[in-house]
Amino acid sequence: QVQLVESGGGLVQVGGSLRLSCAASGRTFSSYPMTMGWFRQAPGKEREFVAGISWSGVVTYDRPSVKGRFTISRDNAKNTVYLQMNSLNPADTAVYYCAARPTSDNYIATIANDYGYWGQGTQVTVSS
Q1: How far is CA 52 from the centre of its chain?
Q2: How many Å apart are CA 96 and CA 10, to the nearest integer?
Q3: What does each of the 128 residues of the chain score in pLDDT, given as a tens digit?
Q4: Phi, psi of 114 (to 5 degrees)
């Protein structure tokens, strides 16, 4: 089993930055390769893929709206994945979820159902 705990969300003004963290426990990244993803869900909307990173560090950002503003990274020694979010705007307001998909390949799934483990989410609110 893998447990994921997100942190770093909060209230920020337009143009501000936040760094989300996702700490994994139960299995270590080094012994249990996983692709990690960040999703978000705004009120009344479906959960959407934001960014993903493979066990070896291949990254993808599925949404043109976040490319160039968001950066996903991982520290396998710390079992932690990060999402650096810059130039935030109100459209980024959502609950952000960390997800894990056990695999050692570089394919990064963008569908929520492809991920077997989820955190509880952290709220990000961008005020104008």
Answers
A1: 7
A2: 11
A3: 899 999 999 999 999 999 999 999 998 888 889 999 999 999 999 999 999 999 988 888 877 889 899 999 999 899 999 999 999 999 999 999 999 999 888 899 999 999 999 999 999 999 98
A4: -80, -10
Name residue 4's beta-bridge partners: 24
- Beta pairing class for 10-13 and 122-127: parallel
* Token pair belonging to 5: 């705990």
* Residue of 47, 50, 38, 45 whose CA lies nearest to 101: 38
Round to whole Å and give the CA distance between 114 and 123: 23
